From TrEMBL:
The lineage of its organism: Bacteria, Bacillati, Actinomycetota, Actinomycetes, Micromonosporales. It comes from Micromonospora saelicesensis. This is DUF4331 domain-containing protein. Pfam families: DUF4331 (PF14224). It comes from the Bacteria. InterPro entries: DUF4331.
Length: 464
């Protein structure tokens, strides 16, 4: 979920599949914004000898829109190359990897970083090494040291990292995709009430899985458009963020072991802004189309935001639990609250002291008001919990985006635009029942924030 296997075609191409996107004002460096895009989802840590990596034939990009047109004004582009040290060995490493230039490491990956702004490309770095995958205590005994070596501060002010991290997204995939079961409510499910006598314990399906992250920490002046002031009420403080992956249009397979050849212009095969948008909002027949388009084209999908299928399913799956939502859905009234949250940003006046509106262009982007400072004690429910620095104002690594999204769809946010609507009592309690505490690898307090990837030797944990 979020975007781990959200569309039929990209599910067949995990190396280009964007799984999660984060954008937040850095809590330990408040004059910067941190942008993290995860790819290659659902990695089994023990998956050797060909451990997971970025694609040399994929162009990975993080885009920033600072004028509200749904098109990138600033782009950070990551492009990778792979080198084999010993072509006669099948092994990933032949001994401990204690540094990024270790002779024991047989398959190394490097990347270049390019900033695209004002129609010009500026290469910020070339051939920066990634850390290895976290193989185990014998192969990568001091993994945190390798991550520190692979975290770079650039002369232009950015910090950058690209490599494996623990998947920090928490979701009960097994329950949700079993006819929309929410284990804390499973005994109320239309079919579950015949099976379950009480609520169940949720399971974090992505726990102890890894991803590959591209992460960049950028000074605020490098992402915001020029303005005289950047207050919380000023449009210039708000940026829109999304990530994409692109491949060459033509690929020719090599014959009899010959190298494959890719040619032609790059074409987008994956993108991600708000979590769950393509996963839950866009219908199956249009998911691959959505992945190929820029956010500026998202007015084509507005009807699915205005009348989301899940809003009609909740009352059907949980009879008598969501009567007010059922009435609203059957009225066919457009969900202006969801349009604001997902497509235009929340305008001023709906929530005290808050706005992240970008204008009239409907575009799926993570909208971040960079003038709202990080909170000392973040609330995992973000704006719904009174924490204006959390989702849907950007997205932090610990935000409970599944619960927030479910509650919004269930009607909690409707009173923002319709004071006469009374959300169902269950709407504010609906949840899969998970939190950041259900992620085994703890988040970090500084860049790159996502936890140390799980190693193959200890996953699953050995029986005591």
């Amino acid at each position: 979920m979020s975007s781990h296997r959200e569309a039929p075609e990209i599910a067949k191409d995990p190396v280009a599949d964007s799984s999660d996107l984060y954008a937040f004002v850095s809590p330990d460096k408040r004059d910067t914004v941190t942008l993290i895009a995860n790819y290659v989802p659902l990695q089994l840590p023990s998956g050797g000898p060909n451990f997971f990596e970025f694609g040399d034939d994929v162009r990975y990009e993080i885009h920033i829109d600072n004028d509200g047109d749904g098109r990138p004004d600033v782009t950070y582009r990551f492009e990778f190359t792979t080198e084999i040290t010993n072509p006669n060995s099948f092994l990933y490493n032949t001994g401990p990897i204690d540094s990024l230039d270790s002779k024991n490491w047989n398959r190394r990956q490097f990347y270049s970083l390019t900033r695209v702004a004002d129609g010009r490309e500026h290469r910020l770095a070339h051939k920066l090494p990634c850390p290895p995958c976290n193989v185990g205590p014998l192969s990568t005994p001091k993994y945190a040291d390798l991550v520190r070596q692979a975290t770079y501060s650039l002369s232009t002010g950015e910090r950058v990292f690209a490599g494996q991290r623990a998947d920090g997204f928490f979701v009960d995939l097994g329950a949700i995709f079993d006819l929309g079961t929410l284990r804390p409510f499973q005994q109320l499910h239309v079919a579950g009430k015949k099976i379950f006598k009480a609520e169940g314990e949720p399971v974090n399906a992505t726990d102890r899985m890894n991803v590959h992250s591209i992460a960049v920490q950028v000074p605020l002046e490098r992402v915001r458009r020029r303005a005289n002031r950047y207050g919380a009420a000023d449009r210039a403080s708000v940026i829109g963020v999304w990530t994409s992956a692109s491949r060459r249009q033509v690929r020719v397979l090599g014959d009899r072991g010959g190298a494959d050849t890719s040619t032609g212009p790059f074409t987008q095969v994956s993108r991600l802004g708000n979590p769950l948008f393509n996963e839950v909002i866009v219908p199956m027949s249009k998911k691959d189309l959505w992945n190929s388009l820029p956010p500026s084209e998202d007015k084509r999908f507005a009807q699915f935001v205005e009348q989301p299928e899940l809003a009609a399913l909740l009352p059907a799956l949980y009879p008598d639990v969501f009567p007010n939502l059922d009435k609203l859905t059957k009225s066919k009234k457009a969900r202006a609250d969801l349009v604001a949250i997902l497509l235009t940003g929340v305008p001023a006046g709906l929530i005290d002291g808050f706005t992240n509106a970008t204008g009239e262009v409907q575009a799926d982007m993570l909208r971040l008001n960079t003038a709202i400072p990080p909170t000392r004690r973040p609330d995992r429910f973000g704006v719904l919990g009174g924490d204006l620095a959390g989702f849907p104002n950007g997205r932090r690594v610990g935000d409970d985006v599944v619960s927030i999204a479910l509650r919004a769809i269930a009607g909690v946010t409707v009173p923002l635009v319709d004071k006469t609507f009374q959300p169902d009592a269950a709407a504010a309690a609906v949840t899969p029942g998970l939190s950041a505490a259900d992620v085994t690898a703890p988040f970090l307090g500084n860049f790159p924030y996502l936890g140390t990837p799980y190693d193959g030797f200890n996953n699953p944990p050995a029986a005591s």
